[in-house]
Design brief:
Layout lengths: L3 H11 L4 H14 L6 H11 L3 E7 L5 H7 L4 E2 L7 E2 L2 H5 L3 E6 L7 H14 L4 E6 L2 E2 L8 E2 L2 E2 H8 L3 E7 L1 H5 L12 E2 L1 H4 L6 E4 L6 H14 L12 H4 L3 H4 L3 H5 L10 H4 L18 H4 L23 H4 L10
Parallel strand pairs: 1-4, 1-5, 5-9, 9-11
Antiparallel strand pairs: 2-3, 6-10, 7-8
Bound molecules: iron/sulfur cluster and FE3-S4 cluster.
Length: 328
C-alpha cells in the first residue's frame, strides 16, 4: 500500500522531476528555511499535491538585476556523478509556479500583454502571487516609470489588492534602492512606503536579492499557506535574522585583529578580515554566507571582497563610501 509520501513522490515524478532531484530540492528548501528535517516530508507532500501557483512579476524602476539573478541560477554539475548536470533551484521551481505575466520575459506585447495581466487577475482573484522588482517613483504622479502609458503606481494599485501575497524582490522594491539614493529626483520608494496597507508583504532586500531566498519564500507559501515569519521591516527571519559579521568565516581574524590593509597584501592572500577595507558585515543582516551566490559557488567575502551591505536599508546613502571602515 502506498503511503502519503510515496504518493507525493510519484506525483512529483509525473511533473518531470525524478525522485532524487525532488527530495534534494525539498531538503534544500527545509535547510534554507531553517526548518528541522522532519519538515522535508511536509514540504514534499504540499508541493506535489499543489496546483501551479500563478505569478505576476512586475518590473518597475530598476536594472533588471533581480530577473537576471532569477534567470541565471543555471544548472550545475552534479558533485557526485561526473558528467551529470543537476537542475537549478529555478528549474525545479518552475514545476510549482506559473509565471503568467513578466513584463521583460513574456512573449506578448502591447494590448496582448495587457490582456495577459487582466486575464490572470480575473481568473485567480486572491490566489496569485505578485513579485515586484524595482522602485516606484512617486514624483509628478509617477511619470518617471510608465508602461503602456500607465505609471508603476497605477499598475501596482491594480495588482496588489488581489494578490494572496506580495514579494518585494531586491532593494529597489523594498525601499527604493539605488533609484532612491540622494537626491532621488524621481521620488523613488519601495512597496511598503507607497502602499502601507499591502497585505502579506515579504521584503527580500539585496542588490540583487538572492534567488534561494525567493524560492524558499515561495515554497513556504505553498507548503504552509502563509508567509514566513517576518521582522518589523517585513524581512523573513530565516534569511535576514543573523548579522553577517557574527557568522563570518573571517571572524576569528577580526578577533585577533588581523586585517587586510591593502588589496593583494599578505593578509588578503591569507584570508584575513576585510573590516579595514570597508567591509559592512557588522552592519548587515543576511544569510549570504550560507546560501551563497551563483548556485552556491561563493559569496563576496569568500571571494576576497568586503560586504557592501546591499541587504541593509538605504545602503546607497547610509553605507557609502563602500571602502571606508564603518567606524571611521
Ligand atoms: Fe566582519 Fe567583514 Fe571581517 Fe567578516 S570580513 S569578520 S563580516 S568585518
Ligand atoms: Fe550583499 Fe553583503 Fe551579501 S554585499 S550579497 S549583503 S555579503
Amino acid at each position: 500500500m502506498s503511503t502519503q509520501n510515496d504518493l507525493s513522490l510519484e506525483s512529483a515524478v509525473h511533473r518531470s522531476l525524478n525522485r532524487r532531484d525532488f527530495l534534494r530540492f525539498c531538503s534544500t528548501m527545509a535547510a534554507a528555511l531553517a526548518l528541522p528535517s522532519r519538515y522535508v516530508s511536509q514540504i514534499a507532500n504540499s508541493l506535489s499535491l499543489a496546483t501551479r501557483l500563478p505569478v505576476v512579476w512586475l518590473e518597475f524602476q530598476d536594472c533588471t538585476g533581480d530577473s537576471e539573478s532569477f534567470l541565471r541560477a543555471g544548472s550545475r554539475p552534479d558533485p557526485i556523478q561526473p558528467g551529470v548536470t543537476d537542475p537549478s533551484l529555478v528549474d525545479l521551481l518552475f514545476d510549482f509556479i506559473s509565471v503568467d505575466y513578466h513584463e521583460t520575459l513574456m512573449a506578448p506585447a502591447g494590448f496582448a500583454a495587457e490582456k495577459s495581466l487582466n486575464d490572470v487577475l480575473g481568473k485567480y482573484p486572491n490566489n496569485y502571487l505578485c513579485i515586484i522588482e524595482g522602485a516606484l517613483p512617486q514624483a509628478q504622479n509617477g511619470i518617471f516609470c510608465t508602461i503602456h502609458g500607465r505609471s508603476a503606481l497605477s499598475i501596482a494599485q491594480q495588482v496588489l489588492p488581489g494578490a494572496m501575497a506580495t514579494i518585494a524582490m531586491g532593494s529597489c522594491a523594498v525601499d527604493g534602492g539605488l533609484a532612491a539614493a540622494v537626491p532621488n529626483l524621481t521620488g523613488a520608494t519601495g512597496i511598503l512606503n507607497a502602499f502601507p496597507g499591502v497585505k502579506n508583504l515579504v521584503n527580500l532586500p539585496g542588490c540583487p536579492a538572492n534567488v534561494v531566498n525567493l524560492v524558499a519564500t515561495i515554497v513556504y507559501l505553498i507548503t504552509f499557506k502563509s508567509i514566513p515569519e517576518i521582522d518589523s521591516q517585513h524581512r523573513p527571519y530565516f534569511a535576514y535574522g543573523e548579522e553577517i559579521h557574527e557568522d563570518c568565516e573571517r571572524h576569528d581574524f577580526y578577533e585577533d585583529e588581523k586585517f587586510v590593509l591593502a588589496w593583494g597584501d599578505e593578509g588578503h592572500k591569507n584570508g584575513w578580515c576585510l573590516f579595514k577595507m570597508g567591509c559592512k558585515g557588522p552592519e548587515t543582516h543576511s544569510n549570504c554566507r550560507w546560501v551563497k551566490w551563483n548556485d552556491s559557488t561563493n559569496w563576496p567575502i569568500g571571494a576576497g571582497h568586503g560586504c557592501i551591505g546591499c541587504a541593509t536599508p538605504h545602503f546607497w546613502d547610509t553605507l557609502t563610501p563602500f571602502y571606508q571602515p564603518v567606524d571611521d
